[in-house]
Write a structure and sequence with these properties.
Blueprint lengths: L1 E3 L4 E4 L3 E8 L3 E4 L3 E8 L3 E4 L4 E4 L3 E5 L1 E5 L4 E5 L5 E7 L11 E5 L1 H16 L5
Parallel strand pairs: 1-3, 2-4, 3-5, 4-8, 5-11, 8-12
Antiparallel strand pairs: 6-7, 9-10, 10-11
Length: 129
Amino acid sequence: MLRQFGYSYLDFSGGGIHELVLISSSQARLSGGRIDEIRSYQSAWKYAGDPPDWVPDPHIEIVCRDHHWDEPTNILTGTWFDDSTFDIRLVDVAGYSPTIDNIFFTPEPATLLLITVGGLLLRRRKYYL
């Protein structure tokens, strides 16, 4: 079991963890390896802005090619950018945000590059009627 407390930050890209536990303001960036279970003692929302309002504030970043969350089983599956797969059980803790709400997904770097290049090419193209 790996526990993240306070303002700690974990960048996990390989190896294996049975249980990842995030507490308080800790953050994690996950981009590979085997993670059996994630448990979050955190709120996925914060009160901010002008005027103040509740806004999303997830603490867990998952960098992957694709993902699917099965709500009835609370299992998150997907593919890392190195084409290996993951199968993570999300454990919700009473009194805190559901773990899935505390996760945001980032596409693989190659996908971001393709989206950026495509956007630039579309921007440069001139349309004539």
